[in-house]
Amino acid sequence: MIVVKQGFIKVAAATPKIRVADPVYNGAAICEKLQECYARGAKIIVFPELCITGYTCGELFLQELLLRAALEQLQVIREKTAGQDALVLVGLPVAKDGKLYNVAAILQNGRILGMVPKQHIPSYGEFYENRYFVPGAQEVSGFKLEGEEIPFGSGLLFACQNMPGVVVGCEICEDLWAADTPGTMHAQMGATIIANLSASNEAVGKEEYRELLVKATSARLLCGYIYASAGEGESTQDLVFGGHNLIAEGGKILKQVRKFSCETIYSEIDVERLLTDRRRVGTFVGERRDDYKVVPFHLEIEETRLERIFSSMPFVPEDAMLRSKRCEEIFSVQAYGLKKRMEHTGAKSAVIGISGGLDSTLALLVTAKCFDLLGLDRKGILAVTMPGFGTTDRTYDNACKLSITLGATLQEVDIREAVMVHFKDINQDPRKHDVTYENAQARERTQVLMDMANQRGGMVIGTGDMSELALGWATYNGDHMSMYGVNGGVPKTLVRHLVKYYADTCGKQELAEVLLDVLDTPVSPELLPPVDGNIAQKTEDLVGPYELHDFFLYYVLRFGFAPAKIYRLALLAFRGSYERDVIKKWLQTFYRRFFSQQFKRSCLPDGPKVGSVGVSPRGDLRMPSDACATLWMAEAERL
Q: Label partner for 54 (CA 20 to 30 A): which of 24, 158, 335, 577?
């Protein structure tokens, strides 16, 4: 399917400064805004409700002169769309068959494609539209304008013929507030973008409610939502209009304007993402109704210049308050998941291998919270430190301090002698620092933990995180295995923030100092001998930066984007941090490892999902272990 290149289409919500009941002035203001939008490359441009006349005309809506002037200015605006590659939605009053309708006119390249009347006419509080307007009918009829028959009705959709997937439906203000919104049926009929022409006045608390409605509607309907509201120039006799414009996509506000600015806002809606979500969500069921009519139009296919912001850490909220709330929530999900498993199995203790690294630190913190929830003494947590050939004093000391400070039982098992015996048994030269040298240590540690758990009637708590599992950076039947993996749904970039959150909120200086030093320690499995007492084996030097891999992982699993699109987004998100060739190199590494290491994920221990992405073979990632990566690698290599 070809959509706008890589799925993005630039849209605009424009609020001109108008004069009440002056269509000529307003028409000129709308045309001026159109030129600005054209220059910015907007392909869908939405103006406010009744903006050709003004929303606050009152009884003047019953004046024939005003209605005639509004239609005349519609023709003027129509002419300004000729030769322009954009779909334009503008509001005006239209008299038809002896009744007056509040209408959105849809224009494109010198044509009026259709007129969509408002369905829900408010007559409460400060609104009394039913004095003038009647609700629009769902059935599509015709409206004659200068000898032309224009489709007229609420059941209209506007579909771009050369960009399948770009389908626009229309609501008008109160339609969004209604229990049965027109947008719901539009989306079920295939609309991926809903435009709302609005004249929503300002009142205390209304801005937040309006934002919530737009955000929730775009999430519920898996659509893009463009909301253009009336602003400066409307009558302030009893109300004030702030021009609160919003653009949303799938539950996220992409852009909104500060009130009282008459500012035009722009962003890019990712239609490809929305279509992917609709295919993924089986409960989103499309319908077909006879009372709908689809009006075709054409736009030029081109690469949309992206102005929207893409976070370099999509798993981590940028807002500090939201991030703290999310961290607390994730801790609870992990701890309650483990609590249920321990209650069910009757486990008397929990056994964790403590390395002094990030993942085992998080697992120990979660287990401590679980024991608190169960009302158990933390001494029942056996924290096992197992020095090997690569263990440094720094990580060893932090592992011990952390265990003692949290009140766990600390036990040391030096695995070096046992591994040397194993090397002798399998005829492995200990001077040969190959994969066998490394994995033998990881598997020995897992054997120690499993047997110690058996001794105590306990459970081995897994420490590996989702990023490691995605890359296969785990020793099969070594650190890959446990009895319950509390970190399996948490990506590495989020692990760091969870540990930092605990350090900031624990209220214990000694514990906080240890946690902060763990955060400052390079990520490493410590399976190779240290160099001058320092860690010799740094994971990110070998497999690449985890912030890049988490970015790739998010867009591969959450939205199914192709390598070229992910690469483009990464260039924007990591501008100034990584060169193009570096991003390309690690993207290719990600795909190669992601496909080749699925066999490790196919037999993962149980563990809780904490976010929108997971790699459990019983949940989000039911992927064959021998799937071919050729298609993805070929595109990644062409970048």
A: 158
